[in-house]
Amino acid sequence: MKTSSLVKVTKAEKSKIDQVDFDNLVFGKTFTDHMFVCDFKDGQWQTPEILPYQPLTLDPSAKVFHYGQAVFEGMKAYKDTDGKVWLFRPEENYERINKSSARLQMPEFPRDFFFEGLEQLLNLDKEWIKSGQADGNALYIRPFVIASQPGVMASPSTEYKFIIICSPVQAYYTKDVKVKIADYYSRAANGGFGAAKAAGNYAGQFYPTRLVQEEGFDQVIWTDDTTHEYLEEAGTMNIFFRINDTLVTCPTSDRILDGVTRKSVIAMAEKLGITVEVRKVTVKEITEAAANGTLKESFGSGTAAVISPIGTIAYKDQVWDLEKPENCYSATIKKAILDVQYNAAEDTFGWRHEVK
Amino acid sequence: MKTSSLVKVTKAEKSKIDQVDFDNLVFGKTFTDHMFVCDFKDGQWQTPEILPYQPLTLDPSAKVFHYGQAVFEGMKAYKDTDGKVWLFRPEENYERINKSSARLQMPEFPRDFFFEGLEQLLNLDKEWIKSGQADGNALYIRPFVIASQPGVMASPSTEYKFIIICSPVQAYYTKDVKVKIADYYSRAANGGFGAAKAAGNYAGQFYPTRLVQEEGFDQVIWTDDTTHEYLEEAGTMNIFFRINDTLVTCPTSDRILDGVTRKSVIAMAEKLGITVEVRKVTVKEITEAAANGTLKESFGSGTAAVISPIGTIAYKDQVWDLEKPENCYSATIKKAILDVQYNAAEDTFGWRHEVK
Ligand SMILES: Cc1ncc(COP(=O)(O)O)c(C=O)c1O
Ligand SMILES: Cc1ncc(COP(=O)(O)O)c(C=O)c1O
Questions:
Q1: CA gap A295, A351 in Å, rounded
Q2: CA–CA separation, B337 vs B134, rounded Å?
Q3: In sequence order, what DSSP letters do the residues of B21-60 get, joined into one string?
Q4: How far apart are alpha carbons B135 and B133 in whole angstroms?
Q5: Is the model's pLDDT at A98 over the cut of 90?
């Protein structure tokens, strides 16, 4: 285990790990013994600390509660069969959280604080990471930044907290998801901050999602807010379509999150010899392909589930069920990525990062 | 003073009021001795309480930090020269916070809890409300609701806190504001939640606002995100233009906050015999009117300042300064509304509500 002079560590007196049933985890409900916290004030990030997991104390006027200055990341640590711990493309998450922060006029977090803090934290809470690729055992890692300055005026905060909390998880979706294409509500504006992993991008989705859930679907597939003719992404996943034997996904933009899994799926698919097209995808072509049988597969991509196959896709009054094809891209690509994540296959892309 | 069986009251041991310099208040920085708090759990709002103003303790995984489920209101209490305390159209704020909550899949707050809580709180902290219409002395009231359930999964919270905090304030803007019309960034999406007073609508504005501030302006005037051809609203104000002798403002929509001050300005202007047009307003007509001198005035409307005259308006490379006309609408309407708010004139609309 590395030791670091950067991070001040206060260990929990007693671990809570014995109280946890690792075979029946609810996603994102259980947290490990420690958390990483670093405060920004007087124009700079202060000494980072690892502390026992504990509540936050904030003034009721703290800006995060009123003006939504809050960004986050989602990443995972995996344990291989030898007990080694691995991160998947953590550099991408580090860069993305700073991009998200910049779009919300929040200060960037230093690289050494991020990586040393994260690795120290994972080392301390190593026991919480269970091996077991088949069950999707992993440690979900949630770095986030919140505006902590007191004051009810709509201007950027001068104080922030950068925090990392960790939650042991298992496979996210076990069933195929049922999605409905948005024709009225939207997730993000042109020139807005949809591309940022900002807290404010999520709450607005809950009500439209609830509406489709009342019709029996799980999630909304968002479309552009101007015409609703172009498919964009799902609530917490980017989206792929297999038309005949070509895998299609839309380009990222200022409305769409540049998913780490999305770019990994594209690279892995190409490596596996699959033709990938990154281009605008219309609702019209996808609904026609669903109707005439050329839409062979569709899936979402995201850190939580890697790939979530879509079993049903709906648009307005029409509903199509997708049969799993023989040579299923989603299963093949998912397996290939998981093998890299769990150190069960060669890492030709250099995506894996060992936590020592 | 009313007593209420609904609200449980715990008084502060000692008031902080002596430490406050009421002649040098910074907007939204100083808070009164008490706060109102009501928790939602197990599917219902629990007993509302008034407590000494104090920090909130929340789990670091509380959903407000991650998914932006947070809405708020802004209203004011005014003290007249006889020491009576008045609210301005509080029913509007009550209804709007529930509309905002509904759009973010949050539970509505009961009317009796809201009004009894608010009035009890104002009674307890009455001393903090200073009279003085000329200085804009008032108590700014900030009701807000935050998602408090722990858990890092993007789904609606099952637990919330409804809170009211109060801050003594003086006139907000003292100088005329300089604004620049947005031609790239946007505030809200079609089918989004721009019409909700949601935390997530504010943080995204800070970076574009910062960019115009670097050019010497104070605020952005937002335009529609599809074409950037239609003027919508400012960061925390609706916007009015006087073209020749007609006052023009755009209609509300799912992108624009339905401001209480906006609708009061429209009603008051009409009462004063001013012609008001509520219709789409193009960037083209306003910049042409600015260039040819028919744009006589422009101002923002909002609770904080009632009316903020715009002294300079810019679009791309062009900048126009607006000279105050002789018969200035903004000054006349502002005075007329303030007179109602401070109980200095007859309230023909029934807008005033006495806090007893
Ligand atoms: C809106 C949105 N889209 C897509 C994704 C997928 O991104 P990633 O693959 O980096 O997890 C996420 C994050 O999980 C997301 O929140
Ligand atoms: C985005 C936005 N527009 C307009 C306004 C003005 O609304 P009101 O007049 O109700 O204060 C506000 C609130 O202050 C606001 O936040």
A1: 30
A2: 13
A3: -TTSPPTTT---SEEEEEEEETTEE---EEEES--EEE-T
A4: 5
A5: yes
Length of chain B: 356
What percent of chain A shows pLDDT beyond 90?
96
Pairing verdict, β A75-79 and A219-223: unpaired
Which pLDDT tens digit goes with each residue over B76-115? 999 999 999 999 999 999 999 999 999 999 999 999 999 9
Query: Same structural domain for residues B223 and B75?
Result: no
Residue-wise pLDDT tens digits, A5-40: 799 999 999 999 999 999 999 999 999 999 999 999
**Phi, psi values for residue B307, rounded to 5°:** -135, 130
Which CATH number do you get for residue A326?
A: 3.20.10.10
Identity of residue B132? G
Looking at beta carbons, which residues of chain A come within 8 Å of B151? Answer: 28-29
Q: Are residues A159 and A191 in the same domain?
A: no
Q: Residue B258 C-alpha to ligand 2 middle, in angstroms?
A: 7
Q: Is A236 in the pocket of ligand 1 (CB under 6 A)?
A: yes
Q: How far is CA A32 from CA A19, A139, A161, in A?
A: 11, 9, 19
What SS3 class is residue A112?
helix
> Which of A154, A155, A225 has its CB closest to that of B190?
A225
Q: Which domain holds residue A33?
A: 2-169
CA terminus-to-terminus distance, chain B:
6
Question: For chain B, where are the alpha helices, taking DSSP H only?
Answer: 63-67, 90-103, 111-124, 203-214, 260-271, 283-292, 329-341
User: Is the beta carbon of B301 within 6 A of some atom in ligand 2?
Assistant: yes
Q: Which of A128, A153, A169 is the last residue of a domain?
A: A169
The per-residue pLDDT for range B298-333, each reduced to its tens digit, is 999 999 989 999 999 999 999 999 999 999 999 999
**Number of domains forming the structure of chain B:** 2
At B162, list the tokens.
Answer: 């409804």
Distance CA A278, CA A258 (A): 13
Asked whether the predicted pLDDT for residue A155 surpasses 70, the reply is yes
Question: Tens digits of per-residue pLDDT, A227-245?
Answer: 999 999 998 999 999 999 9
Phi first, then psi: give them for residue B131, nearest 5 degrees.
-75, 175
Task: Report the distance separating Cα B298 and Cα B243, nearest Å.
Answer: 9
Give contacts of A 143-162 with B, CB under 8 A.
144, 146-147, 150-156
Task: Identify the three-state secondary structure at position A166.
Answer: strand
Per-residue pLDDT, A66 = 98
Query: Which candidate, B161, B109, B114, B173, places its Cα nearest to that of B306?
Result: B173
What pLDDT does residue A3 have?
58
Least confident piece of the model among A168-177, A196-205, A254-263, B126-135 = A168-177
